[in-house]
Amino acid sequence: MTRRILGLLACMAAVLSLAACTPAGRAVGDTQDSMPEVAHDSTHPTDVTVGFVGSTDTAADEFVINALSDDKLNVYYASLETSASSANATDGVSGETESSDAGTTSENGADSMDAHTGVDKNAATAQQGVADFVARAVKIVVISGIDVTDANRESWNQTLTNAREAGIPVALIDPKHAPEDELLYAVILHLNTNSADSGDTADTKPMTITDAVLTITRDEPHEREIKVTVS
User: Fold this and answer.
1) Which residue stretches, if any, does this entry annotate as coiled coil (predicted)?
2) How do the domains of the chain map onto residue ranges?
3) pLDDT tens digits, residue range 19-37?
4) CATH homologous superfamily for the domain 2-229
5) Residue 8 CA: distances (Å) to CA of 19, 113, 138, 188
6) Residue range 99-128: average pLDDT?
């Protein structure tokens, strides 16, 4: 009887723990309506692990990874390129590269659909990257250029739901088509790799990508869409 009671208590604790990871009616990382009474000073950049899921624009990926790594964040990179291409794409870029066997793609995404299976290999590779980062328990998943379509919507919803249930916030950089369910991501980041050409005044200067990532991981108030720079 004692063992049965202890088992039930353990199950209840697991359920409560999972529920605590998923805020009601809000995305993970978008749950604060006001600044917390106690500042998150303990969340130092060196404590933050970022799972970065790349796009077919490897140059933009490098800008982001370099900016985050230069600010001492720990970045893991899941590339859409093949292993050989990844080595070239990440040359000089800080961060660990994840690999996937989901398929290969050209830089413009033209070969992303498998002619035999009809599977979107870009989406499959990106989703595997998210799954790997969830298993690694990173502090935040950042996805560049996500393209949610009728063909991959269900698999993307499941992938991002898994991240949500694990309590890991998701940020989207310049999505082609974002998920319809806004509970699955905390923010959309609009990247400007050349802040000098942004045309913004001092009062409207974009956040850096690092500041945006730290804001989300610290669960501080933020807009649903944020303009960011890499410098």
Assistant:
1) none
2) 2-229
3) 446 778 788 888 765 555 4
4) Response regulator (3.40.50.2300)
5) 17, 47, 30, 40
6) 62
